[in-house]
Amino acid sequence: MSQFNGFPESWNHSCSVDRSASKSSLTKRQLSHASTVRAGTDTRLRWAAGLALIGCIISAYLALFQYGALSRVFDPVFGGASSARVLNYDLLRPVNRAIGLTIHDGLVGSLAYALEGCLALVLARSTRNTPLTVVYAATVVLAGLTGFALVALQAFAVGHWCALCLLSAGISELILILSLGELCAAWTATKAFFGRAFVSRIPLRARRHVA
To answer: What's the rounded Cα separation, in Å, for the pair 124 and 42?
Structure first.
C-alpha cells in the first residue's frame, strides 16, 4: 500500500477533502451571516427613511402655519391655541436678524427630515459609504438633540404644549435609535481618520522610536 508521510494515501486524501469541505462550510456561514446583517441594516434604514418622511410632512405642515398659510393648527390633545403659542415663539430670532430673512424652525425641521430620509435610502441601497455614513450620523444626532431641546423649550420657556411638535420630536428620537449602528460606524471612522492625521504629523524618527 502506498503511503505519504507515514499515512495511507487514502487517509491523506480524506483529510484534504474534509479540510476543503470545512473551509467551504465556514465561508458559506460567514456569507450567510453577512447577508443577514446587511438585510437587517437595510430594514432599519428603510424604517428610518419612512419615519423621516412622516416627520418631514409634519414639519412642513407646522411651517405653513408659521408662515401664515394656515390660520390655525390641528392639535387634538392640547388645543390649537396652545400649539399656536408654541409655534409663534420665535426660536430663530437672532439668526433671522443676523441674515435679514425669516426662517422658522418648521422649515428647518422639514429640510432636516428630508436630508435624513434621502441619506437613509442611499445607505440602504448601496454598499458602505463612509463619508455619507458620517454625514447621516451627524444629521441624526443634531436632529435628536434638537428634539430634546424643543421639548425642554415647551416645558420651561413657553409654558405650553404642541402635540405635533412632540410627535416630531419623538420621531427624531426613534430615528436616532434605529441608526445606532450607523452612529457607531461613523464614530469608528472618525476616530480612525483623526488618528491617521495625528500619526502623519509625527516625525518619522519619533514614530520609529515609539514603535
So the answer is: 5
